[in-house]
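FAQ

Q: What does a record look like?
A: Structure on top, sequence underneath. For example:
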């Protein structure tokens, strides 16, 4: 299986980005999916989780109310909509299927004026 993230970039504080993670090579709709992030010098942290059908979600306290995780099982894609971005959201964002141990290579998000 493979996970490929896209959608990162440079954005000003208060701005928005939508990350996408395209999955292939496994039965995507059967598995929970997660987004993690890792800032320079810090440990990788869990940002959001979505259940296999999308009915249940979890968010880290630091992003609750600003980020939204969603998925389109027909397109084998999971999304992370990020609003009201802050400089402390700057990190490499990774897509993950924990059950199968799959990770993407990550996409850089930089929040700076």
């Amino acid at each position: 299986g493979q996970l490929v993230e896209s959608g990162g970039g440079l954005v000003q504080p208060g701005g928005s980005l939508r990350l996408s993670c395209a999955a292939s090579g496994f039965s995507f709709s059967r598995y929970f999916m997660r987004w993690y992030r890792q800032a320079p010098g810090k440990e990788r942290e869990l940002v959001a989780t979505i259940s296999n059908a999308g009915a249940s979600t979890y968010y880290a306290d630091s992003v609750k109310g600003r980020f939204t995780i969603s998925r389109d099982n027909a397109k084998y894609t999971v999304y992370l909509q990020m609003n009201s971005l802050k400089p402390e959201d700057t990190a490499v964002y990774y897509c993950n299927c924990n059950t199968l141990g799959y990770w993407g290579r990550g996409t850089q998000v930089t929040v700076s004026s």
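Q: Is there anything notable about this one?
A: The two ends are 37 Å apart (CA to CA).
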